Amino acid sequence: MAGFLDDIEPLKQAALAELNTAPDLAALDHAKGMWLGPNGKFTALMKQLGSLSKAEKPTAGRLINTAKVELEIALVGRREELELAAVLPKESTDFTLPGRGRTLGKLHPLTQVTEDIIRAFRKIGFAVADGPEIEDEYHCFDALNTPADHPARDAQDTFYLHTQTATGLKPAGLRLLRTHTSSVQIRVMKSQPPPVRIIVPGRVYRRDNADATHNPTFHQIEGLYVDKGVTVGDLKGTVEFVFKELMGGDVKIRFRPHYFSYTEPSYEIDFANALVKKMGKDWLEIAGCGMVHPQVFENVGYDPAIWTGWAFGFGIERIAMLRYGIDDIRLFYENDVRFLKQF
Ligand code: DAH
Description:
- This protein is an alpha+beta fold.
- It has helices at 2-21, 25-36, 41-48, 57-87, 109-123, 137-140, 152-155, 183-191, 232-247, 274-278, 294-300, 316-324, 337-340, and strands at residues 127-128, 134-136, 160-165, 168-177, 196-205, 217-227, 252-260, 263-272, 284-292, 308-315.
- The protein folds into two domains: 2-87; 109-340, BirA Bifunctional Protein, domain 2 (2-Layer Sandwich).
- The strands form two sheets. Strands 1-5-6-10-9-8-7 form a seven-stranded mixed β-sheet, sandwiched between helices. The protein has a three-stranded antiparallel β-sheet with strand order 2-4-3.
- Helix 5 packs across helix 9.
- The chain binds 3,4-dihydroxyphenylalanine.
- Residues 180, 182, 222, 260, 263, 288-290, 311-313 line the site of 3,4-dihydroxyphenylalanine (DAH).
């Protein structure tokens, strides 16, 4: 008995020494097996308990159990130390190094211009309306007084959508990508009674080849104002106000007679300021507009004997190019951060 009890303490000390100094997790696992595993040296000591006499067992059992608990505490403690060491950086941190800068994104120049235009129109009571980019011929052309044989359709050729059927591709009831935001005029007027005071920013499509001033997708803002007794004077005053808000005080606006099938009379709006002069021009054409054609009112169920109105549409890219002095429309779509960062 004395021999057995005397063995416990040195064995425990040897085991503790090994567990506490294990250099890494693998060594710790190995030490655990050597001492506490099924064939471990400490386990062997516990197995001897069975051969002791009834009188000896309680003391020996208590000593062995206490020792075992100590070994297990040491094992867990060392494991935590080693695991922590494994995840800590190998080199110490240099707190004097400069921090890593985080670059913040910003709004695309076209979005910025669109938001500024919306803000200007909100000041005078216009609401923003929206419509689908995938349109039908009715909203894009027919309801705007532009029937299938109308020459204006050639200038606004677009992409037509087809549906796949069992027997091949079929035109999907002539669905198309809208060529202008004017289609939303029809949708809004059909959905509400007059008066109407809306602007419609949105993406439009044309079958154009990309060059410095054209792109098959671009953006427009449509405006529509319907009430009693609306005049060309209201239209001109509104356009002048908005362009002064956007481009500054030295802006001049000129209305030139033109033709659109959904307005009568119709005009093109020319714009002049110092920047246009710098480009070597006196005027730059920026928008189409006019008084809403009575036929359009008929088409949406408004009585043209009661209601009058004006409409306009202009390209957002055009405004952004003028505002920032950009000479190639394609730059807007290339997502080159060197370009985008400048705005
Ligand atoms: N939809 C025309 C275009 O895309 C622009 C336009 C002209 C819109 C006259 C109008 C308008 O609302 O009255 O070129």
